Amino acid sequence: MSENDQSERYKAGMAVRRQVLGDAHVDRATGQMTEFDADFQTFITEGAWGSVWSRPGFTKRERSIVTLALLAALGQDDEVAMHVRATRNTGATKEDIKEALLHVAVYAGVPAANHAIKIVKKTFAEMEADTEPRK
Length: 135
Description:
Layout: H1 8-21, H2 23-31, H3 38-52, H4 60-74, H5 77-90, H6 94-107, H7 110-131
């Protein structure tokens, strides 16, 4: 999609998507885009990021917490890990995520929360390893 063809909602969505997920992630996703998934990428950029994540009702931290709980409840493992990494940019804390996953256990089931906890722990360990100084 050329810059001239981008809707205002797409532009707003891309800005929020970059703020939350980071330039490196968005650049990878858009760099791998093909004709097959271009419409899908436009849809999620406009719909999820330009319509929902851009709304003023919740902070990015609150949206991050809700998103993680929903993804955990639905068993969306890759998306859980991606949104845990995004907490660096949204301000959601480990404590926030722990509380959200307790809600998942009550309202979506212990197995869903247990599985998400494993993913979150692994993702936090990877994030911490990425920030350790190289020798």
